[in-house]
Design brief:
By secondary structure, the chain is mainly α. The protein is 72% helix and 6% strand. The protein contains seven helices and three strands; from the N terminus they run H-H-E-H-H-E-E-H-H-H. A hairpin with an 8-residue loop joins strand 2 and strand 3 (82-85). It is elongated and about 70 Å long.
């Protein structure tokens, strides 16, 4: 298989994986394109390679930058903006985990904390069932937040670095 074919297959596969994780397919495809190449890409090159509109590419490049998965690079003498991916897989994993925690876990955690203290009226059995559900969900979300925090700090910690090295 030629490298260009492999890269295109990677872009398609990463895009499908991203959409199954709730990330826009085009965002995941742009990320895959940047990841799979060690060159800088302009917006136009991304549009041409993946066959996406300028607006779609611009929005998704902004999101990739927000997630710290891609950065803008200026070239001397060029008016165009160029982009490159973060290539370190541990940094990618930490950035994704951090962003997912902020966007998904923290809002539900805040809601569950509020529900635990909310004064409810109605059938006592329904209230008891609901309060138990909220407590169990809150416990689960707290554990997920702790696991996410461990992943985020994992590669920064000397102990975890040694464990990861031993696992290879």
């Amino acid at each position: 298989m030629k490298i260009e074919e492999a890269k295109l297959e990677f872009i398609q596969t990463w895009g499908s994986l991203g959409s199954s994780w709730g990330i826009p397919k085009s965002m995941a495809q742009i990320h895959a394109l940047l990841l799979a190449s060690n060159k800088l890409f302009s917006t136009e090159e991304i549009m041409e390679t993946i066959k996406l509109s300028r607006g779609n590419v611009n929005i998704n490049l902004r999101e990739l930058s927000n997630w710290k998965l891609a950065t803008k690079v200026n070239k001397i003498g060029e008016r165009k903006e160029f982009f490159k991916a973060e290539y370190d897989v541990w940094t990618i994993a930490r950035n994704i985990a951090s962003e997912r925690k902020k966007r998904e876990l923290q809002p539900i955690s805040e809601f569950l904390i509020r529900m635990k203290t909310e004064k409810l009226e109605g059938d006592k059995k329904d209230i008891k069932h609901f309060k138990e559900l909220i407590k169990d969900l809150s416990d689960l979300v707290q554990q997920l937040e702790k696991l996410t925090d461990i992943l985020i700090r994992m590669n920064e910690n000397a102990f975890f670095q040694k464990v990861i090295t031993l696992m290879k």
